[in-house]
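Possible regression after last week's pipeline update?

I re-ran a chain I had predicted before the update to compare outputs. Posting the input and the new output here so someone can diff against the archived version. Not blocking, just want to make sure nothing changed silently.
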Amino acid sequence: MGEKAKAQDESKSSGNDGGNLDESDVIAVLPGIVLQAGDENIDMIVMSAVPGDCRPNTVVSIGVSNLQDMLNATVANVETGMKTMAEKKIGQ
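New output (post-update):
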């Protein structure tokens, strides 16, 4: 994603201020959460993060558009890596 996405809600579980999320942080959808059409945010839990970012086990509310941006950036990185591997004939 490149830029940091500000967690839109304060922590709901640990009292943390929400912090910042970036491409090095690992997040997951909370168990039992189902995204409905029209939802603008989804609650997620921080699984791991670099020091100074959100603390692990912090629950954050993230905009669906931010999640889409993160997914798009991940797909682009994988495609770039696969192209590089093909050009260098890695794994063939």
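Follow-up from reviewer: compared with the archived run. Residues 5-87 form one domain. Marking as no regression found.
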